[in-house]
Amino acid sequence: MRLIDDYARGGTEMAADTVWALEAHLETCAICRGRLAASVATEAPGTAALVDSVRAALGPQLDTAVRMPSRRYRPSRLPAWTTSVTVPWLAMTVIVTVLALLLAAAGAPTAAGGVAPALLIAPVLPLCGVAAAWSRALDPAYELTASTPRAGLPLLLRRTTVVLAVVLPALLVEGWLTGAMTAAQWLLPSLAFTSTALALGSVVGVTRAAAGLAAAWCAVVAAPAWGAGRVPVVLRPDQLPLWGALLVLGTGAVIARRRAYSLL
């Protein structure tokens, strides 16, 4: 009860993690929400009066604006996992995958000495969507989303899951159709890059981390391998243990810095 009273007075003396835990609890506990309403009325009468005045002013407008949804309308579950602005980025990623498939079908790997274009971009292709998963510039509701108790790492992981669920199957289908690359060559590197981008994102921001890793890969590995016409050394089967270690380290760093994502 003391925590609720302190929160009702503004919570200025409460620790940030305590505020986060309390707000997360209030989302699911109707009893504590009732206690908070009673506490606001006694501990912060000015706030209670302000809320009442706003409710009185907005009530008639809300009653006029609200319309019952059509019976045929079914709310999509997609917004709970991603944002509408992520969809164009996912579509662009799929288009890039299709273009790589067309290049492979047109004989581009032969001209490049046997290295498939898709193989060179597959490890970093999910980063295009990850870069948009938690971006202030690309999310029109960023301020509203960032202020919720469940923002931060849980929301970022859900949006990253959407990206992987779209990109990885597209790459698997391309590899199956062309036979130019196997999942063992790119799947583990792709997951390792994703976890590394999230880990670095806790320091420099997810968008910057994803863009920087993708640019570094293209400049240091993909472009030289394409020019030489051979599969890069880092994508050979004997390098998979190193990619596995990078995946584990990235995942560990994300878990260790999980609280930093609420401040991005």
From TrEMBL:
<keyword id="KW-0812">Transmembrane</keyword>
<keyword id="KW-1133">Transmembrane helix</keyword>
<feature type="transmembrane region" description="Helical">
    <location>
        <begin position="78"/>
        <end position="105"/>
    </location>
</feature>
<keyword id="KW-0472">Membrane</keyword>
<feature type="transmembrane region" description="Helical">
    <location>
        <begin position="111"/>
        <end position="134"/>
    </location>
</feature>
<feature type="transmembrane region" description="Helical">
    <location>
        <begin position="183"/>
        <end position="203"/>
    </location>
</feature>
<feature type="transmembrane region" description="Helical">
    <location>
        <begin position="155"/>
        <end position="177"/>
    </location>
</feature>
<feature type="transmembrane region" description="Helical">
    <location>
        <begin position="240"/>
        <end position="256"/>
    </location>
</feature>
<feature type="transmembrane region" description="Helical">
    <location>
        <begin position="210"/>
        <end position="228"/>
    </location>
</feature>
<protein>
    <submittedName>
        <fullName>Zf-HC2 domain-containing protein</fullName>
    </submittedName>
</protein>
